[in-house]
Amino acid sequence: MAVKRENKYAEMVLSCSEDHQYRAEKVLDDHALVRVVSGELKVIQANKTFIFNAGDTLLFPRNQLSTLVKTAKDGRAYKSIVIRLASAQLREYYTKNQYDQLQAHTVGIVPLDKNVLLESFFSSVVPYFDLDKQLPQKILTLKINEAVEILRNINKDVDNILSDFTEPGRINLADFMEKNYIFNIPLVKFSALTGRSLTTFKRDFEKAFHLSPQRWLTQKRLELAHYYISENHLKPINVYYEVGFENLSHFSRAFKKQFGYAPTSINQG
Question: Which domains does the chain have, with CATH numbers?
Answer without folding.
Answer: 2-162 (2.60.120.810), 173-265 (1.10.10.60)
